Structure formats: structure tokens, C-alpha cells
Amino acid sequence: MTTYKLLLLPGDGIGPEVMAQVERVVGALGELGIASFETETDLVGGAAIDVHGKPLADETLARADAADAILLGAVGGPKWNGVAYDIRPEAGLLRLRKDLGLFANLRPALCYPALADASALKRELVEGLDIMIVRELTGGVYFGEPKEITVQADGSKRAVDTQVYTTAEIERIAHVAFDLARKRSGRVASAEKHNVMKSGVLWKEVVTKVHAEHYTDVQLEHILADNCAMQLVRRPKQFDVLVTDNLFGDILSDAAAMLTGSLGMLPSASLGAVDARGTRKALYEPVHGSAPDIAGQDIANPLAMIGSLAMCLRYSFGLGEAADLLDGAITAALAGGARTKDIAGAGAKVLGTAGMGEAVIAAL
Ligand code: ATP
Ligand code: MG
């Protein structure tokens, strides 16, 4: 059995608590002969600022570069609100994404059957929902130049953000989306606004070309991003894979996430290009943040973090069966009644972070 090298970056707030559960799951996967890992742990975010004076040390970046995959907890918290902008905790994560070229952000929005009883959560969930949002992560309006605020002659200000996309950037994200669709229901929706944006015109043109040349077995639909937002709320189950740019993806993935129940349940992957060895750089992290309000109390839900490990098995190592086993263990633990506070309805027996980790391992 191949032993994979994982770099664990627990980070801040509830990050270390949920990562501790992943470490136990990693141990159990080894003991059960399902998958074998060697792990190394390092600092990121506020935890790194406290020790190194910056949120990502060069040695840590080098370790991230050498690892087969990276698992990250969460960064940030009120303790570091006052630090300079360039060395804020989030800058560490942004540097990891940028320097490792992690251009494709995969965010599944999946509603677990055991949680579909919305009344228990006092929220409206969409039973059977299973969408994969593929968001372009390193281009677009968040990075385009010029990006500035200037003062005009009359003293008023002018702010500029620039949306830039190249053929190559759109091609590679399109490939990720179509490849994923082949392993799912075989449908891709591509969202942009070609009616008002030149970058949308190019996006549509390039996605159409990649589809025609390589993926005619996949069903492709183009959809305007505003209509897509409406459809996500109106009839979300029409979507399988949804590919879109950085800005629209940020917004649409948050909207889709909220159809599924809790922030504590949602994993994510950020993938880079496939290199000459046939491997790709990749970072896996929960969608939720450091949740300082509940840190250190053994109440955080570790399932988003554990689900991120399952994505790692699937997308970094091609261990689809092992990933299915782990996803199945999460589903089984929930079906068996395991609940953390954030997903507990009235009368449910509430487990702590460690208790939920145990429930998943028992199911595994
Ligand atoms: P960020 O800016 O890093 O995205 P945020 O402030 O937007 O962070 P979170 O830190 O994710 O958001 O927290 C939002 C809310 O969700 C908080 O009330 C938090 O306690 C809750 N929450 C987040 N993650 C979890 C979890 N794993 N388990 C339970 N509750 C969680
Ligand atoms: Mg947030």
C-alpha cells in the first residue's frame, strides 16, 4: 500500500479541535488497512503569527510544496484583528493558494438524508440535493489589475477592480468541471454574464470549445449568473456540476451551502494543475471559518473537516473506494443519530467534537 504524505495545518480557533478528529480518522484508516499516511503538522494563520511574526513561514510553504496533499483547519480570530493587512491570518491561506497555483475550488453542496427533517433544525433543507460547485479561484476580479482607490481632483474618490480572464485560465477550470461531471450525473452548467461582460463572452466561448473538442458525452448548459442564483433557490436539484468564475462562485457556493443544513458539514478542495509526475497540488479545508465563538469547548462539528479528508482520498490519491467508505461512515454516524450541537434538533442526544469523531470511526 502506498503511504501518502499529508501536511496538517490546524490553524486557529476550532481548527485544531476538528483537525484532531481527522488525525484519529487517519490513524483508523491505517489500522483498518484502508489507506496509509505519514503526517506532519505545522503552523498557519494566527498561530504562525504568534511564533514567526507572519501567517505563513517560508519553511511551511516548502513543506506544503513537498507534501502529497495539505489539510487545513481554519485561520483567523479576534486576537489578530489588529495586525497589519499584509500579515493578517487570511494572507497565509491566500499565499498558499497563489504560490501552489490552486486554481480550482470544489465545493460540494450535499444534503444528508438523516438531516432532511428540516423541522428539527428549524431550517429549510433540500432533501436529496447533491451539487458540485467548481469555482475559479486564482483569477478574475479579486486579482485583476488595476485594483485601486484614487482621489479625484475634487477630493472625491474613485475605486477600480478589474476582471481579467485568459483562454488558458478558462480552459483548465472547464476541464476540471467536465472531468468531474463524467464521474457524476454527466451534466455541467456554466454560469457567467456574457450579456454585459467581455470576460463572460470569452468564458462562454472557451467552455463551449472545450466541450465540443473533448466532452461531447457530457451535457452542457450555459446560464446567466443572475438566473443561476434564482434557479439555485427555486429548483436547486436541476444542477449537477456548476462551473463559474471567482466572484460568482464565491456568492453562488455560499448560497448553495445554506440549502444543506450546517456550515459544520461542508468540505472543500482547492486543486492545482496536474504536473509531469501526474500528481497535482491540493489543499482540503472545511468551508467554515475558525468560529472563535465556540472554540475550545468541544462543541464544534468535525464533519466538514473529516469530509475534507474524504475529498483528499478521492481527488488527490484516486482512492475512490476509501473515500466512499469514509463518506459512508459519516452518513452512517448521522443515520445512527450522532449529532453535534449545530445539527441537533429538539430531543437529540448531543455529542461533542471528539464524540462525533468517535462515532465516525465506529461506523468506519
Ligand atoms: P470566516 O470569516 O473565516 O469565513 P465567519 O465568521 O464567516 O468566518 P465561521 O467562523 O465559519 O464564520 O462561523 C460562523 C458561525 O457558524 C459561527 O456562529 C460558528 O460558531 C458557526 N460554525 C462554524 N463552523 C462550525 C462548526 N464546525 N461546528 C459548529 N458551528 C460552526
Ligand atoms: Mg465567512
CATH superfamily of the largest domain: Isopropylmalate Dehydrogenase
Low-confidence segments, given as residue ranges, are none
Strand content: 15-25%
The biggest beta sheet reads:
10 strands, mixed
Distance between the termini: 19 Å
Number of helices: 12
Q: What number is the mean pLDDT?
A: 94
**How many structural domains are formed by the residues?**
2
Order of helices and strands: EHEHHEHEHEEEHEHEHEHEEHHH
Molecules bound to protein: adenosine-5'-triphosphate, magnesium ion
- Find the count of extended strands (DSSP E, 2+ residues): 12
Give the second-level CATH assignment, the architecture of the largest domain. 3-Layer(aba) Sandwich
The CATH class of the largest domain, by name, is Alpha Beta
Rg from Cα: 21 Å
The 3D shape can be described as globular
Please estimate the helix content. Answer: 25-40%
Overview of the structural elements:
This protein is an alpha/beta fold. It folds into two domains: 1-104 and 263-364, Isopropylmalate Dehydrogenase (3-Layer(aba) Sandwich); 130-258, 3-Layer(aba) Sandwich (Isopropylmalate Dehydrogenase). Helices cover 40% and strands 22% of the residues. The protein has twelve helices and twelve strands. It has helices at residues 15-31, 46-52, 58-66, 89-99, 118-121, 167-183, 198-214, 225-234, 246-257, 303-315, 320-335, 353-363, and strands at residues 3-11, 36-41, 69-74, 104-110, 130-136, 144-151, 157-162, 187-192, 219-224, 241-244, 267-274, 280-286. Strands 2-1-3-12-11-4-5-10-8-9 form a ten-stranded mixed sheet, sandwiched between helices. Helix 1 crosses helix 10 (303-315), helix 1 (15-31) packs parallel to helix 12 (353-363) and helix 10 packs antiparallel against helix 11 (320-335). The longest helix is centred in the first third of the chain and has 17 residues, at 15-31. The radius of gyration is 21 Å and the shape is globular. The chain starts with a strand and ends with a helix. The mean pLDDT is 94. The chain binds adenosine-5'-triphosphate (ATP) and magnesium ion. Adenosine-5'-triphosphate (ATP) is lined by residues 14, 76, 263-264, 288-291, 293-294, 300-301, 304, 342.
